[in-house]
Amino acid sequence: MLQPKRTKFRKVMKSRNRGLANGHNVSFGDIGLQATGRCRMTARQIEAARRAMTRHVKRQGKIWIRVFPDKPITKKPLEVRMGKGKGSVEYWVAQVKPGQMLFEMQGVDEVVAREAFELAAAKLPVKTAIIKRTIM
């Protein structure tokens, strides 16, 4: 599971997920999976999508994961009254904005890569688009 090795602070405040993404180009591979909406993507969802893609391409080529879950989400235990401080860290999320590149792939046939991205997109909580690299 993806999570930071060490952080400056254990817990962070809840924030808004506004604006557009910076990493919106296919930078490393030939074809990429791009988010068209905004969401909080958990480390489990990223790992499930990665496994689905890797199994479909039969471990050929190279896959880049362009999102990283760096925000801790806290949760208080069940049946605990309000107050008494913030809960403990339950899981980690990546804040995904529209246009952000999620995964990239290289060294795989385009048809196989598209099928792999469709399998991965089914595991994710956001609508996606498949983008090819444009050479200028």
Summarize the structure in short.
This protein has 136 residues and is of the alpha+beta class. It contains 2 helices and 7 strands, in the order E-E-H-E-E-E-E-H-E. Helix content is 20%, strand content 28%.
Helix/strand layout:
Blueprint lengths: L30 E5 L3 E4 H14 L5 E4 L5 E5 L12 E9 L4 E6 L3 H13 L5 E5 L4
Antiparallel strand pairs: 1-6, 1-7, 2-5, 3-6, 4-5
Provide an overview of this structure.
The chain is an alpha+beta fold and 136 residues long. The chain has a domain at 40-77 and 87-132: Aldehyde Oxidoreductase, domain 3 (Alpha-Beta Complex), CATH 3.90.1170.10. The chain contains two helices and seven strands. The strands form two sheets. It has a four-stranded antiparallel sheet, covered by helices on one side. A three-stranded antiparallel sheet has the order 2-5-4. Helix 1 packs antiparallel against helix 2 (110-122). The longest helix is centred in the middle third of the chain and has 14 residues, at 43-56. The model has no long low-confidence stretch (mean pLDDT 95).
Tally of contiguous helical segments: 2
Low-confidence stretches: none
CATH superfamily of the domain at 40-77 and 87-132: Ribosomal protein L16/L10
- Our estimate of the beta-strand percent is 25-35%
First-last Cα distance: 36 Å
CATH class of the domain at 40-77 and 87-132: Alpha Beta
Query: What is the string of helix and strand elements?
Result: EEHEEEEHE
Which bin fits the share of residues in helices?
10-25%
How many strand segments?
Answer: 7
The CATH architecture name of the domain at 40-77 and 87-132 reads: Alpha-Beta Complex
Query: What is the fold-level CATH name, i.e. the topology of the domain at 40-77 and 87-132?
Result: Aldehyde Oxidoreductase, domain 3
